[in-house]
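Narrative of activities, Objective 1.

The group set out to show that a structural description can be obtained from nothing but a protein's sequence at a throughput compatible with the screening campaign. Below is one input-output pair from the validation batch, recorded exactly as produced.
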Amino acid sequence: MAYVDFVGAVHKSTKRDYVQRVVEHDKAECAEVAGQFGQDYWDGDRRYGFGGYHYDGRWRVVADAMVAHYDLQPGARILDIGCGKGFLLYEFSQALKGARLSGIDISEYGIENAKEEVRPNLTLGNCKDLPYDDNEFDFVYSINTFHNLFNFELYPSLQEMQRVGRGSKHITIESYRNEREKANLLYWQLTCRAFMMPAEWEFTFQQAGYDGDYGYITFE
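Output recorded for this entry:
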């Protein structure tokens, strides 16, 4: 297991007012709406989530970096756990010749409104029970999904990710390294359930038998 940051630059490109997020609206109500992962979360008011999540090419640098780092070969089978609208999967179709792509997400709205080119490759489902064969994929990744799970969901989900991947694996989660980042995460998050420091995430990965890499984003 190694720490590898693929999405830090994308994350830091967004400016955030943490205090405004808490005082401007009923944060608890916003989180309840966001947790349904429906239209409001993806394309509704910013208080409920992305405030409109549209393809803009920002994920291409992530796909290119992953292809290079893991030396992914043309025709590789790739799985995105928590694929959302499939933007990063689409970038893999551009970054790697003949890539065979699959994505799974709990959001029916996200999949129905995914990028048209990869929509047929997406499945509605839960990461606790992946509908794929053992060792089916050359590369499995999950970006900003596992922190949305309850702690008792983490082990089965990590074990499923381990099961279906025969090659490299990567997880990115939200985390915090100090009390300021912890407060900012609490202020900003809408769907996060597993609040852990990097060392706690590493412990959880090891206990579940996950042997892939990981990265984390923080709210500084």
